[in-house]
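Troubleshooting log. The previous structure file for this entry was overwritten by mistake, so regenerating from the original sequence record. Sequence copied from the archived sheet and checked twice against the printout by T.R.
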Amino acid sequence: MRRCLFGLGLLLAGGLQAAPSLTLHATRSGPTDLAVTGKLAGVPAGESRYVRWTDLAALPTTKLTLDGEFVPGKQEVTVVFLADLWARLPVGPGADAVLATCTDGYASVFVDAFIRERRPFLILAINGQGPEKWPPPGLKFNPGPYVISVDNSVSPGVESLLDIGHKKPWGVATIEIASFQERFAALFTGRWAKPNAAAAEGREIWIHSCTSCHAGPVDTGTFGGTKGGRPFEVLVGHATHNPAYFRSYVRDPKGFASTAKMEPHPHYTDAQLDALIAFLSLPPKK
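Regenerated output below.
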């Protein structure tokens, strides 16, 4: 699969040079700093930099009314679109994705086409209150330090996409400016270099849904969350040798274990589960 490496650059052409750059700090000043890592010009590989909430709030912001995002009813949120944040970071060559990691090990993938077309945004304030005053009344846990979300009012139809909740992470503490091709290389080589149509569809489901809680193949550097706690190879084993169990577990995890961390996915069709199994169960190249 080819990704457009220049999509965001084209979108922001003309604005990149004129827009003031965000100040990247070498040390964290407090819990509401957003850690930024990855392909950042002038920043050594593997190091993080930090952006203050006040610096983010000084960017072009938009006020949106979201219904039921945090608690029942409408809340006004102050947001910065990821495209505007991208435009003010020293993005290095080859970067075409934002990878978000949350305080509980959850993760989300935002490729350039999604950022351009679906306009995800970083929430800075809820009903006028910044993250230092979260959670908002009625919410039992703190969604901070940041939330990334999408909404039909900004991108009509976005809420109807498969597993759109995976593009609405709470507790975002770190964003990585990344090359999609590099961070998911292992899923496009070896056994997955030339997958059939079903396995290719399953790979897309894995990347944009399963990756939120599960990392990829061990020792490959593939991006993924850690919340699920089940290694990629364990899931491959279930999909390959006990596909009936795999299907049932994905649809209703708590039906097998009341302590299961995974959310149920009863909305997955037989075809989508077939595709996911086809991806996971492709035999290794000899």
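Residues 7-182 form a domain with the Sulfite Oxidase; Chain A, domain 2 fold (CATH 3.90.420.10). Archived copy saved in two places this time.
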